[in-house]
Design a protein that fits this description.
Blueprint (H helix, E strand, L loop, with lengths): L1 H24 L1 H15 L3 E5 L6 H10 L2 E5 L12 H5 L6 E7 L8 H10 L7 H18 L6 E6 L5 E6 L2 E6 L11 E5 L3 H15 L2 E2 L7
Parallel strand pairs: 2-3, 3-4
Antiparallel strand pairs: 1-7, 2-5, 4-8, 5-6, 6-7
Helix pairs in contact: 5-6
Length: about 220
């Protein structure tokens, strides 16, 4: 009888473990566990998206509710996609929108050139000229999209850039760049205020903003 009961108990335990593991593979249960750990540690981390593109729907919703927005990107393609459409269409009217993009007119051996060299190791079609042209195209897009919005300020930087930051008054999305993958294929961390990760995101942006210059193609100062 004891052996029979032990067999049933072991089967139940094994089934429970398999169920727990299968649930954790789904996004929401994993997010619940992450949020619980965040509450104990004070990091503010609520979600981890395996790819930054998976965060864009949630990001768009946060932008609609934002009182202010801060963006520091390595190329700026996200600014031309659906996630940021609420800002350019007028569905979202934050009091301030600060955007930082790399300076495409820096001399050789700039951060853009070094990033291009990293990407070229796994993407042979990538060259310094290509990355610079993509940044210029995104700057031109922003200058046109935000031409009637006086709250948008666009600055450029030439600093080592290790992660993309998109922050509002309530949340922050951080994507840490890798030497062997495009940013779009990198994990994205979703943090809420207050919390350590949210504070780090703002510090990263504010430091770069203090060392940036106004982009010539915009009329904002």
């Amino acid at each position: 009888m004891n052996a029979f009961l032990l067999g049933i108990l072991s089967s139940l335990i094994t089934s429970a473990l398999l169920l727990a593991l299968s649930l954790l593979r789904a996004s929401r249960p994993l997010w619940w566990l992450t949020a619980a750990c965040s509450w104990f540690t004070g990091t503010g981390l609520r979600r981890v998206y395996r790819r930054q593109s998976a965060a864009e729907r949630s990001m768009s919703q946060d932008l609609v509710r934002a009182r202010w927005v801060k963006v520091m990107a390595g190329r700026g393609n996200i600014l031309t996609r659906e996630a940021f459409a609420p800002l350019w269409s007028g569905d979202s009217t934050p009091a301030s929108v600060q955007i930082l993009l790399p300076d495409p007119d820096t001399p050789d051996d700039s951060w853009l050139d070094r990033r291009s060299q990293d990407v070229a190791r796994f993407d042979p079609g990538f060259t310094p000229a290509l990355l610079r042209s993509q940044v210029r195209a995104n700057i031109n897009y922003l200058a046109q999209a935000a031409r009637s919005q006086r709250t948008v300020r666009l600055h450029s930087y030439n600093l080592p850039h290790t992660c993309r930051v998109i922050a509002t008054d309530k949340v922050a999305y951080l994507t840490f760049y890798s030497d062997n993958a495009h940013g779009r294929n990198s994990p994205c961390l979703y943090a809420r205020a207050p919390g350590l990760l949210y504070t780090i995101a703002l510090q990263q942006f504010d430091t770069a903003w203090a060392n940036s210059t106004t982009t010539p193609t915009t009329s904002h100062s």
